[in-house]
Automatic annotation (TrEMBL), chain A:
<dbReference type="InterPro" id="IPR011006">
    <property type="entry name" value="CheY-like_superfamily"/>
</dbReference>
<dbReference type="Pfam" id="PF00196">
    <property type="entry name" value="GerE"/>
</dbReference>
<feature type="modified residue" description="4-aspartylphosphate">
    <location>
        <position position="53"/>
    </location>
</feature>
<dbReference type="GO" id="GO:0000160">
    <property type="term" value="P:phosphorelay signal transduction system"/>
</dbReference>
<dbReference type="Pfam" id="PF00072">
    <property type="entry name" value="Response_reg"/>
</dbReference>
<dbReference type="InterPro" id="IPR039420">
    <property type="entry name" value="WalR-like"/>
</dbReference>
<keyword id="KW-0804">Transcription</keyword>
<dbReference type="InterPro" id="IPR001789">
    <property type="entry name" value="Sig_transdc_resp-reg_receiver"/>
</dbReference>
<keyword id="KW-0805">Transcription regulation</keyword>
TrEMBL record, chain B:
<keyword id="KW-0812">Transmembrane</keyword>
<feature type="transmembrane region" description="Helical">
    <location>
        <begin position="386"/>
        <end position="410"/>
    </location>
</feature>
<feature type="domain" description="Signal transduction histidine kinase subgroup 3 dimerisation and phosphoacceptor">
    <location>
        <begin position="185"/>
        <end position="250"/>
    </location>
</feature>
<protein>
    <recommendedName>
        <fullName>histidine kinase</fullName>
        <ecNumber>2.7.13.3</ecNumber>
    </recommendedName>
</protein>
<dbReference type="InterPro" id="IPR050482">
    <property type="entry name" value="Sensor_HK_TwoCompSys"/>
</dbReference>
<feature type="transmembrane region" description="Helical">
    <location>
        <begin position="430"/>
        <end position="449"/>
    </location>
</feature>
<keyword id="KW-0547">Nucleotide-binding</keyword>
<dbReference type="InterPro" id="IPR011712">
    <property type="entry name" value="Sig_transdc_His_kin_sub3_dim/P"/>
</dbReference>
<dbReference type="InterPro" id="IPR036890">
    <property type="entry name" value="HATPase_C_sf"/>
</dbReference>
Amino acid sequence: MNRVLIAEDLYLLRDGLVHLLQAHGFTVVAAVESGPELLKGLLELRPDVSIVDVRLPPTFTDEGLQAALAARKQIPGLPVLVLSQHVEQLYARELLADGSGGIGYLLKDRVFNAEQFVDAVRRVAEGGTAMDPEVIAKLLARNARNEPLAALTPREREVLEAMAEGRSNAAISQRLFLSESAVAKHTASIFAKLGLAPSDDDNRRVLAVLAYLDSR
Amino acid sequence: MLRRYGQITALLVLGVVQAVVLALSVPMLLLAFMLGVVLLFPWQVRMVRRLAELNRRLVREWTGLEVESPYLPAPPPPVPEPNGMYRSERTLYKTPRVPAWNNRWKWMVKDPATWRDDLWLLLDPMVKVSLLPVFAVIPERALLMYAHWTDLLLGATVASRLAGQVSHLRRTRNLATDSQAAEMRRIERDLHDGTQARLVAIGMTLGAVEQLVDTDPQAAKALLTKARESSAETLTELRRVIRGIHPPVLAERGLADAVRALAMDSPLQVTVTVDLPERPESPVEAAVYFAVSELLSNAARHGDASTAAVDISSHGADLRVTVTDDGLGGADPAKGSGLNGIERRLLAFDGVLALNSPPGGPTTVTLDLPGVLPHEPADKLPRGKAIAIALLWCTAWCPSFPQGVVPAIFKIFGVEEKSWFLALHVPEPWQWPVIFAMIAVGGTMYVMAHHLRANHESRHLPTKLGC
């Protein structure tokens, strides 16, 4: 669960990521710098998790994203964490479209906080999701006038945000200084208000919430 | 029918006025160019132009044939030199009067339209007389024939259209460079006040860390946290600036997906339809993107809308964008909303913005950018038509001038010479009818040649560059 592939064209950042991940016990199986190399690496090496920059040579458009999507089409659920200088709901939607999890989409700034970043990498490697808070904020802003969402209490909204980012109940309770049972109570209430079927599986729960927010 | 006859009568009365103007013009021109009474020339030009303009207007109102003014744009007023004097060639003047007059003189003399007007003034009364029988029998068609004749001498030529386009392009280029310079200043300000200042602060914090790291590691650690937060903020700020210059999603995905991304970020329920055969050029994409972004945020902010629709489609080489929302309506560009900014941005592409926003809604904004998409050129003239037009142009002079106008002048001034002028060889009572028939034949040939080409262009060039 710790073979990782890195695709990033800036040498400094690539090198930094390699060191950071090695320091946290990951094995870097490949560090590539272009779209075609990335696709080849993803399909041949099947890393436990890949960290992919959206914009890669040769075209410097969305090579990385396209390669990740293409690889996941052939190997469903191949865990990929996409990094970018900017986040777009459009890209988040494309990444989440197959509904199979193992997806992360974060701003490059999040690398600054090594603990949280490595936590996100682990979550994606285990088939979970890691969505950037900015994506979630945009999703929620778009749904601001929605009836069921407007009915949530401020606390429930905070829990929903953390949950949509892909955090487990334990992580949410730590972040919001709540007991785990309180978090469980909040999630049950949120699911009831949004009309979603409750689920004990953290993963499926997150995907359901994201799908709900995205469908609007 | 009766109205047509009334219009023809008016034309004939106008013909009398033309004769008077012609009678005035000839001595005025002779005095101006032979005896140097140059002051008379601008008066003569103004008089003829006014008459020609009246004729254009009447033709337009009666037949619907648009006769464009061919005149070159008037010269700009003289600008004083640094010492307050006005220069005209090598002479300096204290007041702008003389240089302005000189510029006007040059403008009028050099404009071919001035001399075409004069030619029209000379020929038009004769054309009217020779068309008299046609006017009497088929007034409707005759008026149309007369309209084409007017277009031939009073309409815009390729050269005058080009001149108009050049001055239009110069104006829009100035506007585009102005707005670009303003953009640059805004970006400079953003970078200077935001990013640069933050980076300075980070540098100072790191300097303090360097000093504290040995003596007070705890404080150094706190400062490092602050520096990291500060660098994250700088990145957020920089991201905002970059979005304002050229949105990354536009560079990565093109207009269609960039507008879809905009729609997702909007608090409104936005449906996006994009139907483009290929990607427009990148400046066009950027202009359209920023326009749609502004319109959507206007709808959300002022219009109290809940749904909106964006439609981007192509019509030949034209790009059309329609943004509709179900808000309160009553948008007014005069109130200084972003609409003016959008209009300025579009001007560089000859684009126009049409706003329909009745109070109570819905609001529809249409952006039209003519000729910005790659498109195959219009059909060429078929060979048969081209040969017919060339033949008509090459031969029409013969009946109209040597066989028409010249014998008429010979007869008026009583010249004995008959030469090869057919009209002067026929018996006396037939001479004038033959002369008018010749002019009518020549005129008709000119009109047909003109009509064939105009007809082809109107059918095959749906988009005319505005000027």
